[in-house]
Design brief:
With 282 residues, this protein is mostly helical. It has a single domain, classed as Up-down Bundle (Na+/H+ antiporter like fold), CATH 1.20.1530. Helix content is 74%, strand content 0%. It is built from eleven helices and no strands. The protein is globular, with a radius of gyration of 18 Å. The protein starts with a helix and ends with a helix. The model has no long low-confidence stretch (mean pLDDT 85).
Amino acid sequence: MKELFLVGTFILGILLKYCFRNIIKYRSYVNKYLIYFGLPLIVYISVSGKNIASLMNYAISSIIIGLSLIIVMYFIIKKLNISNKDKAALFLCSAFGNVAFLGIPISYSLFGEEGAVIAGVFSFFMLIYRYSIGLYLSNNYLSKGTLSNQFLKKPFLWIMILVFILAQFKFKLPFVFSQIASFSTFLAIFIIGTSVDFKLINWKLFKQLFFKMILAPLIALVLAFILSKDNLFIFVLLGFMPSAFMNTTLAIEFNFNDKLSASLTTLGTVIFIALFGLYVLL
C-alpha cells in the first residue's frame, strides 16, 4: 500500500506543477529540507545500530560497483557514432542515476532500513564520483579532462559523513522522527514529480535508455552477485535508477547536449515510476 502511495505522490507532483505554476518557486526550499535533513534522517535512522563491519561491506561494494559502472559506460559510449557533446551528456545520464532523491526513498520502501542504508552509502560515493572522475571523463569526450574537487563543496557529502559518525553513538531519537522520515520519503518523490516536464521528452530516445535501464542494472547484478549476494536486488535497483536531474544542470554548465540530458532524464523517470507502479500492482 505504501508503494502505491509513492506512485500517487509522484503523479500528484506532476498534476500540481501543471495546475499551480507557482509551486516551482517553492521547490528549492523543499530540496534544501531534503538535502539537509529529510534524506539524511532516513539514512541515520537506518544506520543507527549498524556495526562498522557491515557498513564497510556496503562501502566496498558501493565503491567497486559504482566505479565499474562509470568505467564501462565511458568506454562503450566512446565507441558510439554520435557527437562528442552527445557522448558527454549520454555518459552522465547513463552512469549517474538518481540514487539519492529517488533511490533512498524507493529502497527504504521496498527493502526497509537496510535498503536505505545501502542507498545512502551508494549515494555518498556516487556523489564523489560524479563531481570528480565523472566530470573528468565527460569532459574528456570534448577535450582533455581535468579532475575536479567540486564534490568537496556539496553539503550532502558532509552531512552524510556526519550522519555515519553520529550513528555510531546510537542516539535514540523520539518516535516522531521516524514519522518525519516516512514523510520525507513521500516528499522526495513528490519533488521529482514536480520536476517532470513532458515537453522535454523526445520519444525517439528509447534506444539511448538501453545504457541506463538495461546495461547499468546488468553490471550491478553481476558485481553484486560476486560482492554482496545478500543485497543483490538493492544494488540492481540502484543501478536501474533513472538519470539524476543534476546531470542536466552539469550538461548546461559544461556545454554538453543539455536537451539530450533533460529528455533522457525525464523519459527515464516516467518509465521507472510506471514500471514501479506496475510492479506494486502485480
